[in-house]
Amino acid sequence: MAIRSNERSSIRNRISRRLSAGVFLILLTAGWVLDRVIEERLEAEFDGQLLAKARALATLTKEEPGPPSTYELDFADEVMPEFERPTSPDYFEVWVERDTVLERSRSLAGRDLQRRSGMPAAAELSNVVLPDGRPGRQVQLGFAPQPADDEEGMEPDHVSPADFTATVVVAAGRAPLDTSLVAVRTAAAAAGIGILALLLLLGWWSLSAGFRPLEAIALQVGRVEARSLGRRIELPEMPREIAPLVDHLNLLLARLEEAFERERRLSSDLAHELRTPVAELRTLAEIGAAWPEDRQAVEGFFTDVMEISRSMEQTVELLLTLARAEAGIVVVAAEPFDFARRVAELWYRLEPRARQRGLSFRLELPASCEILSDPVMLEHVVLNLLDNAVSHAPAGDHLEIRLKESPSLVVFAVVNSAPQLEAADLPRLFERCWRKDAARSGNHAGLGLTLVAELARMLEIGLEADLHRGRLSLTLRFPRAGGIREQPWPAS
Amino acid sequence: MKLLIIEDSERLRRSLGQGLLRSGHTADLVGDGEDALTYCRSYPYDAIVLDLLLPGLSGFEVLTRLKTEKYPTPILILSAKDQLADRVRGLDSGADDYLVKPFAFEELLARLRALVRRYHDQHQTPLRLGDLEIDLARREVRKGSRLLPLTPSELALLETLALRRGRAVSRRLLIDLLYESKRDVAENSLEVLVCGLRRKIDPGPGGESLIKTRRGYGYQVE
Q: Are residues B155 and B24 in contact, defined by beta-carbon separation less than 8 angstroms?
């Protein structure tokens, strides 16, 4: 099944989105602050120039004292041509004796500039609409005209505002200021967009570089198949953050490989378990059909067919039980029952076969042993343990079957000789179809102990295999009424 | 054909032996790897049928040991292992053929006949010997259009000699190839058999016998 992935859940997109939003906000704030500062600086500079002109006009305004005072503005067009320009000129107007217009720039052409009443102590700056309709800025400055004979003249600032009798207003178009502001803002915006784009590109590139090992892993994982589970994921440079992921993937692969190997072995073993009897049946049938006149041989074949079908039945039954147990279809149904009696009954079934094989035995059972477990499943476990001992013990061997109990614990053990077994074989003992000599010994599939292990797991019974001086003991150990679940076992 | 059946299922061994005997062949039956090696080293066979899962020595081990000894007899693996890897491994280990269980007895016989033909470098089938036509598959011998009434032993003798045509076959080898190993064979039974066969296939008094006697050694056909 392909995993559904959408663009929204892409890590790269998510990081890119957050990064660009963050960077955009930062740039926006920085741009706004920068804009305020630059606008203020530019305006201050513009205003400075206006003020300088106003001050110059104030200085040029002279008073001839003596009643009545006369005033004179020694204005020279060539020094300040901006007041004479035919297009977008600047304006000024000077009042003396508070309200008498002494002089106005030619650009005013007899019109008046707006003037606020009063004599403010400091220069007053404001945005205005110029007489020709352009937006502009003006400065209004109150001052005390200097006496005409005072060559050097005192700075108007040094005169107290109370002595101010004259006013000068200078106004100029804002256009140069606004042009500069627009230019600065455009440049700032362009730089901002550029930085944003660069950062995004950088982010994308870094993320791509960061994700490259992940893509390499995906590619390698994609190449893993059932046949190539021996492969491991390897990166030329393992980033520290990804190393645990790769480690776990490799461990998973190792487990998978082992499981596949087990399944492969199993299918080959099962093939043997099932094909051999089928081959036997087929050959018997073919030869019997080819030479039916040999009655004695054909009658012998029927006995063989009977034996073969019985052993196949056993194999199939075991396989089915195993499959059901592994699929979790079998439900554990615990109830109290006498385990000692059940063991005795089961042994009674197997005893004739044990005698037939010349086996001696010792049965050690308490008078009764009440436990809480699933009687049917536990019966399978015990029957297979006993059957294993009876089938695989060397002829003439001595079997020990022991059931011991303490107030809390029940221990059941079956002991028989296993001269061919080595300690290293014990872990494989419960694998399906495993058998020491890799060939059938008797008409018995090597499934019994696997079933025992599977059922013991479901019943939460401890199962141990021990080898001591060539004697194999298989031991069940469980609490007298312990931990039985009454739900279906989850499939493993 | 004299065959060695190495098979660990006793029932299969038994029924195979019976089938082969009924088909006019001789077979020795063994159930484990060690015995198999002993038999291979002691008696001559036309072909060997080898199971892979054997107690004691596995089929692969038997195969490898025989091939290290440059054992020439063709070997057919008869196994329940049907995986590609097993089949390739079997053939690469020196087996001449591989048949997966369950199998048809007819097919096993046909494959064995093919192996034996190749082994003896006799690519003609049916085999022609003078005016005789020997159909080994149908177990029939014709002289012209006439079917000769040969007993299974006579047919086996003719087959054994015909497969080795042009070479003298010692009496010892003939006895080994015609009878189950470890069976007591009467001193003159081979002569009686040859005599009976000659009477049935030879042109009649005065004509030269197809089966030539090599004095003090054995017999030969051309």
A: yes
Q: Which residues of chain A have pLDDT under 70?
A: 1-8, 149-159, 265-269, 326, 328-330, 431-447, 481-492
pLDDT at A486: 39
- Which residue, chain included where needed, has tokens 């944003």? A196
Q: Which residue has the tokens 């060939």?
A: A439
Q: What is the pLDDT of residue A2?
A: 56
Residues of A in contact with B53 (CB under 8 A): 272, 438-440
Which of A276, A283, A307 comes nearest B80 by C-beta?
Answer: A276
State the pTM of this model.
0.57
Q: Which residue of A280, A294, A305 is the best one to mutate when testing the B interface, meaning the one whose CB has the most B CBs within 10 A?
A: A280
Alpha-carbon span B179 to B202, nearest angstrom: 24
CB atoms within 10 A of CB A240: 6
Q: Facing residues of A167 across strands?
A: A95, A142
Helices assigned H by DSSP within A357-418: 375-392
What pLDDT sits at residue B104? Answer: 92
Q: Is the ipTM of this complex over 0.85?
A: no
The reported pLDDT for the residue numbered A33 is 92
Length of chain B: 222
Packing angle between helix B189-201 and helix B152-163, nearest 10 degrees? 80
Q: Is A301 on the interface with B (CB under 8 A)?
A: yes
> Which residue of A260, A261, A264, A276 is the best one to mutate when testing the B interface, meaning the one whose CB has the most B CBs within 10 A?
A276
Search chain B and give the residue with CA nearest A300: B15
CA distance A334 to A483: 10
A235 backbone dihedrals φ, ψ, rounded to 5°:
-120, 140
Q: What angle do CA B88, B92, B94 make, to 5 degrees?
A: 130
Predicted confidence (pLDDT) per residue in A29-68, tens digit: 998 998 899 889 998 999 999 999 888 888 888 888 777 7
Q: Which residues of chain B lie closer than 8 angstroms to A440, CB-CB?
A: 8-9, 53
Query: How would you label B106-142 residue by residue, b for 16+ Cβ within 10 Å and e otherwise?
Result: eebbebbbbbbbeebeeeeeebebeebbbebeeeebe
Does A434 contact chain B (CB < 8 Å)? no
Which residues of chain B carry a pLDDT beneath 70? 206
Burial group, residue B12, by CB count within 10 angstroms (0-12, 13-18, 19+) = buried
